[in-house]
Amino acid sequence: MRAYSIFSLPKPLTDEQRSRRRHTLARLGLAWLAAMQVMMFAFPGYMRSFSSSPDNIESLSQAIVLMNWASLSLTMPVMLYCAWPIIKGAVASLSEGRVGMDVPVALGIIGAFLPSVVGTWTHQGEVYYDSVTMFVAFLLTARYLELCARQSVAQGGSHEVIEQFRRSVSGHADTLAFWFVTIQLLLAAVLGLVWYWLDPSHAVPVVVSLLVMSCPCAMSMSVPTAVASAHAGLSARPAASEFEVVQLTQQTGRIARQNLYGSIAWHLLMTPLAAVGIVAPWLAAISMLVSSLAVAANSWRIYRSRVREVPAGWTGPAAGQA
After folding, report:
1. pLDDT by residue (tens digit) across 33-72?
2. Cβ distance 73 to 117 under 8 Å?
3. For residue 141, what are the contacts with CB-CB under 8 A and spacing of at least 6?
4. How many angstroms separate the CA atoms of 320 and 322, rounded?
5. Full-prediction pTM beyond 0.85?
6. How far apart are the C-alpha atoms of 216 and 196, rounded to whole Å?
7. Is 131 exposed, middle or buried (0-12, 13-18, 19+ CB in 10 A)?
C-alpha cells in the first residue's frame, strides 16, 4: 500500500491555493533561515553574564552592539514578509470588533520587536530578535502543516461524513480558543503592570512570554489535524461499510478532544511559569511549537491505526476499528 502524504500536491488545487501554498513555504523557509542566524548573533549576549574581567565585558559589549544591528537587519524581512499575514489578520479581526487568533500572536511579535529596536538604537536593555524569529518560524511551521493537511482532503462518500463531523465540532473548539485568548490578553496586561511596579526590567519579558503563550495554535489545530488524519486513512484504505465510517468518526472525535483539552492543560501549566518570569520568550515559543507538534503527532495516530495491516482472513466489522 502506498503511504499517504499530506505534502503531496493535490491536483484539483486552484491557482490561488497553489500561490498561497508557495508563499507560505517561502515565508517558512525565510523565517527559519533568519531564526538560525539570529540565534548565532545572540550568542555573545548569552556569554556576557559569564564574564567577570572588565576587558572581556567591554569586548563583549562591543560585539553585542554589532550583533544586535545584524540581528535587526535579519529580523526586518521576517517582520515585513513572514509575519505580514499574521499582522494583517490581527488588524482585520480588530477592525471587525473581535479578538481573532492572530491578535495575541501579532501583539507578542510586535511587543518583542519594538523594545528590541529601541534597545539596539540606545545600546541599552535587552533585545528579543531571537524570540521574534523563532516564534514566527515555529508558528509558520504549524500553519504550513495545517494548510497541507487541509488541501490534501478528498471529497465525496465517506469523506463527506468526516467533513460533517468537522463542521459540527469546530464551533466548540473556536469558542474555547476565543475565551482562552481573551483571558490570556487580560492576564498579560495585568501582570505587565504588576511587574512594571515591582521590577520594570522584567515587565517586557513576562508580557512577551504571556502573549506568546496566548497563541492558540495547538487548540486551533486540534480538530483540523484529527479530521485530516481521518481523511488520510480513508484515502489509503476506503471504508468497507457504514459501521466502519461510524467507528472512524468516533475515533476522530476522541482524538480531537484529546488534542483540544490536552493543549489547554499544557497552556495552563506553562502560563504560571511565564507569569513569574521562569519561562523566557524564546522558551515560550519553543513550548508553543512542542504543543502544536504534539497535536499533529496525536492526530496522526488515526491514520497509522487505519493503515495497520489487517490479519488475513479477518472480515468482521472490527477489522477497521482504530
Report:
1. 998 998 888 776 665 555 556 666 677 777 788 888 999 9
2. no
3. 28, 32, 289, 292
4. 6
5. no
6. 26
7. buried
